[in-house]
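User: I'm putting together a teaching handout on how sequence relates to shape, and I'd like one worked example. Could you take Cystatin domain-containing protein from Clitoria ternatea, show the sequence you're using, and then write out its predicted structure as tokens right after it?

Assistant: Happy to. First the sequence, then the structure tokens directly below it.
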Amino acid sequence: MRLHYLVLFLSLLVLRGVESASKPGGWSPIKDLKDPHVVEIANYAVSEYDKRSGANLKLVKVVKGETQVVAGANYRLVLKVSGGSATDNYEAVVWEKPWLHFRNLTSFKPLH
């Protein structure tokens, strides 16, 4: 009988650890901001914003990033961009469904 309780207890601990590691809806920090996929998402965000706004911004680097598991993944990135004589930070949110080859720039706003 004690063995059953021990197995149940250990199972609950494992499930709780899995749940906290990949919690849907929660934002998780991106550890490698230079990862080629993250840089690709950042470049997409800047080029899509340029198309929509007529701006001529260029990505300098990814300053900070988080991901969120949704129907696909959201990427919330702080980007250092240059355009004209100014270099500013922007927050971009990109929704991606890689299995559909789908990306959408959800928001792109300057940070002050």
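A couple of points you could highlight for students: Residues 4-21 have pLDDT under 50 and may be disordered. The chain is about 35% helix and 45% strand.
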